[in-house]
Amino acid sequence: MLKVENVVCRYGRIEVLHGVSLEVGAGEIVSLIGSNGAGKTTLMRVISGILPMTGGRIVFDDEEIDRLPAHLRVVRGIAQVPEARQVFAPLSVNDNLLLGGFRRRAADVPRELDRVYALFPALAEKRGIAAGNLSGGQQQMLAMGRALMSGPRLLLLDEPSMGLAPVLVDQILDTVVALRKAGVTVLLVEQNVNAALAIADRAYVIETGRIVLSGPSATLADDPRVREAYLGL
Amino acid sequence: MPEFLQFAFSGLTVGAIYALVALGFTLIYNASGVINFAQGEFVMLGGMVTVFAHAAGLPLPLAALTALVTAVVIGLALYRFAIEPARGASAVSLIIITIGASILLRGATSIVFDKNFHSLPPYAGSAPWIVGGAALLPQSLIVLGGAAAIVVALWYFLTRTLTGKALLATAANRLAARLVGINTNAVVGLSFAVSAAIGALGGILMTPITFTSYDSGTLLALKGFAAAMLGGMGNPLGAVVGGLVVGLLEAFSAGYISSSYKDAVAFLVILGVLFLMPQGLFGRGGVERV
After folding, report:
1. Could you list the residue range(s) of the whole structural domain that residue B208 is in?
2. Which of A182, B39, B216, B282 lies most in the core, judged by the most C-beta atoms within 10 Å?
3. By CA distance, what is A78's nearest residue in B?
């Protein structure tokens, strides 16, 4: 479904991605793990079109989307839940979700809204409240709900567990699994490597802008290098 | 007392215009972080184009519409040809670009039209009503009513339409706005168009009472800027309140102190805000929850 081939990205003169390739098949949960500054978030932003890339190509559904601006990639079915949630703080929960459906046909929005509120009942109780006043976990749900409002086929999740209590982490990851059952493909960036490997089918390990390892989650979880560097075993 | 009322009437009338200019600043600032010092030029264009279109034989409503459309087209052109190509430039560079644009617009207006003062006939009679001993011109009520209608329309647009919410969302978080599929460049262009329209409407409303000329936009921009600062940069409600307060301060100091210091009031307001409360009356502090 998604093919990233030799993507190079630089901030000014500093190259942060040195030719990254990865693939996500329809219906998969693929996890991207790596330490701070490895280029995970950069790669996510290149895929969603927020950052320009300087080399390589990105193919989505057999079509090159490198030249497509970010707002049109949303139309194709790619939605990103950004790192640190990035909710529209002064706007209400309901408005945040409506904006998530910005590119949908107006007729589809109410149905999708009901679906998101059913998925995250905590949000339904707060629909009139400014998003900035929600707790961290609720903001994470809101950020996910907002991305789902666009009806994505590929969901890019950037560190959904960051700063959340363990109970909430489980809840968020359960939701990811449920979404996959509903037909959404997921590319997940996580520092919580245990949790990421537990729900993902396959994983890639990225180090300083290069993919250094990849394979089925179970294999990676047993790999001595992964165990040492990321699982602390 | 009649004196006090008289000053209050005239203060509120000019204050309403300042409020509209301040709203223009606020919209563009929110959407793009740019402080558009050409904002006063939209007001000037609203007045000047109406005057000349009317003199050329167009009926007044049509002349006003022509002025409105002209200002919007120029606002969009300002964005498309001056601001957008400089994307990524520092805030100071962008501000200098808008100052350059305002000089250009002033010069072009003086060549296309002329350098004289112009006025329009009042839209609804010129016989003042006497309220509490003070004279109230029908045109003052039109200015206040018109400004109120614009504020309500803008409020409705921003809070009740998806496009308006997209503008607020772009202001709140540009990255997230792009991620939900909002074309943020188009939103910034829209903010220039709406600001130009608001400015032009202000010019159309005020020209029957205040005269307009090719260079009347400069002071208006400064006073509107003072109003926006006073209200808290980026806050629409603050812009309206700030505008009215600057207008009232100006009218009272002109009346009770001396009219020669009238134009200094706006500068005193700017200084006062910077020294005493940099975030303005309704502005947010620099604290953000992360």
Report:
1. 2-276
2. B39
3. B179
